[in-house]
Design a protein that fits this description.
Layout lengths: L1 H20 L17 E4 L2 E4 L11 H18 L5 H12 L3 E2 L3 E3 L2 E7 L7 E5 L6 E4 L10 E8 L5 E8 L4 E8 L10 E5 L4 E3 L3 E6 L16 E6 L8 E4 L9 E6 L5 E7 L6 E6 L8 E4 L6 E7 L2 E6 L7 E6 L9 E4 L5 E7 L2 E8 L2 E7 L5 E5 L6 E3 L9 E8 L2 E9 L5 E5 L10 E9 L5 E9 L10 E4 L14 H8 L3 E5 L9 H5 L7 H16 L8 E6 L1 H12 L6 E5 L18 H4 L6 H10 L13 E7 L8 H13 L6 E6 L10 H18 L8 H8 L1
Parallel strand pairs: 34-35, 34-36, 36-37, 37-38, 38-39
Antiparallel strand pairs: 1-2, 3-5, 4-5, 5-6, 6-7, 8-9, 9-10, 10-11, 12-13, 13-14, 14-15, 16-17, 17-18, 18-19, 20-21, 21-22, 22-23, 24-25, 25-26, 26-27, 28-29, 29-30, 30-31, 32-33, 33-35
Helix pairs in contact: 3-11, 6-7
Length: about 725
Amino acid sequence: MKNISLLAALVLFAACQEETKKRDPITVNYPSTKKVDTVDNYFGTEVPDPYRWLEDDRSEETEAWVKKQNSVTFGYLEKIPFREDLKNRLEKLWNYEKVGSPFKEGDYTYYYKNNGLQNQYVVYRKKDGGEEEVFLDPNTFSEDGTTSLMGLSFTKDGSKAAYLISEGGSDWRKGIVIDAESKEIVEDTLVDIKFSGISWKGNDGFFYSSYDKPEGSELSAKTDQHKLYYHKLGTPQSEDKIIFGGTPEEKHRYVGGSVSEDQKYLFISASVSTSGNKLFMMDLSKENPELVTILDDTDSDTYVIDNDGATLYLVTNREAPNKKVVVVDAANPTPENWEDLIPETENVLTAGTGGGYFFTEYMVDAISKVLQYDYDGKLIREVELPGVGSAGGFGGKKEDKEFYFSFTNYNTPGSLYKYNVETGEYEQYWKPQIDFNPDDYESKQVFYNSKDGTKVPMIITYKKGTELDGKNPTILYGYGGFNISLTPSFSIVNAVWMEQGGVYAVPNLRGGGEYGKKWHDAGTKLNKQNVFDDFIAAAEYLIDNKYTSKEYLAIRGGSNGGLLVGATMTQRPDLMQVALPAVGVLDMLRYHTFTAGAGWAYDYGTSEDNEEMFDYIKGYSPVHNVKAGTEYPATLVTTGDHDDRVVPAHSFKFAAELQEKQAGNQPTLIRIETNAGHGAGTPVSKTIEQYADIFGFTFYNMGYDELPNQSVLKEFKD
């Protein structure tokens, strides 16, 4: 009996010792966020909006709140013991040369290249047999690297070029025209261009799109009448002619114009939402071309892929949810005259042209399959890809006899291949020299059942030999919206995560485009909950199959994916340890009142549509479903103060709600990047800092006092 008592005492002593080893939590004193008495009435239901004042991105009060929040957040992050180790490892792994696919313009071959840690990619060029030279270096556009190159377009003969720049990550662009040979600027900078490319008409001028500058804040005020302009070189921008979108009858939120490769036609797409477009054309060979309607409704996504004289080739999902290629005469271009050239299949089609052929990429359970057709619709060959993953870039100009395509997957850094259009043979053109061995990792595609029984695919990637014991730190990443497909691609930041024994899992949720329009529509409007259910079921699959457990699971997503994370963590706060909503659409009752947000109504509906839609949206809107007395996971909200796509007020309000109502001890912080936007063009230096913080926060709140795989750190320190 005495021995048993002694044993019990030893066990109790050991347990007490273990208790004393537990670290003290990092103390967080959240700034107070004032409340106002703003109340909105929706169909007789009053909805308070106590943090409405945070929508004013120009006020000194909001600026002060941002500074206080960042002070608390960075004060917390600085105390994470391995934050600097993560930053150093990210820098080392990032530091390899990256090259984009070459393209021919005039006498030069151009390509984008980054020597490793440059904040922005540099555009180089060279003549056949000539020396490489810098054509454009965006790293010289601003001292801090936050001005980025966001578009580059050449005249058909390659003698002139126009490029677009973004300052501080904004969607508003400036346009600069240069002589391609001398690289000298040839006229005044164009301003206030938005959601636009540049399409040249000969050497005389080009088409671009924009909105009137809104009253109030250009970062958050509503913009909903897009206009297509023609800029004639040598004339002031104030004289630019409106081609489409200037009248009430032509009012659309998104308008774009592109000139055919042979310079004969201008094709104009007009949309009221991010799905569905009208389609028009003008014959530029005529002195005063009339606007000709190809398609006068927005029931489909349709665009012209090429033309051969008056023969038009279009890609459409009209009466073909997975898309097809049709052909029609420009004299009678309306749908009743369309003829199928490459019919719809059971897999979703993406089409390109090059060298006088069509290249159709199909997604087979989110994996690429590529076929080559001639212009009569005859199958030439299937392109045997280098492996299982994502291929892109199949296309070029009509006279090209070869072009370059890329291939990647979750554990294989992207490589470039030179493809011969006549023989179908290709050779590796460029392979990255990166300090990462893909052979040490594996990807596995699984299928799981969502709440309603729908089968959903998910690709899980991790280090070979990983033990499925429920203790692997895991990031579940999702999007689920806007017909966007998540296909396998390599990411430096995910490589660092997996080096540390992390599992990276990506489900192909409804709302995406992986299985065509039906799959997209199954995650929109009154079906939006399907997306969250799919994500929740993915988390449950990972836990049930011992990839991870609640204590080691983080959920992550950005933009519409930020909504996904916000909705999931408010509906199932018990399911994950860490939540990472980035630049999220989080106030679903008011998203459509900011910038171009009303254009997202195809996916979401709006709170003003009708009472049923209001009730449904309010039922999942993250800002409106944070409940007092609930233990929420450790949360790091991230946004940029110049985000004019999803305004930062979404994230501000959500963070304020969480900080007020969090009942547990888990931190709820917001990290606000200054002089940064929605993500595109973010300098490499800022990106590395962001992910060191995100991964540091994640590992630390999973209970790690040091990184799981210290040997990797030792290797790179040595």
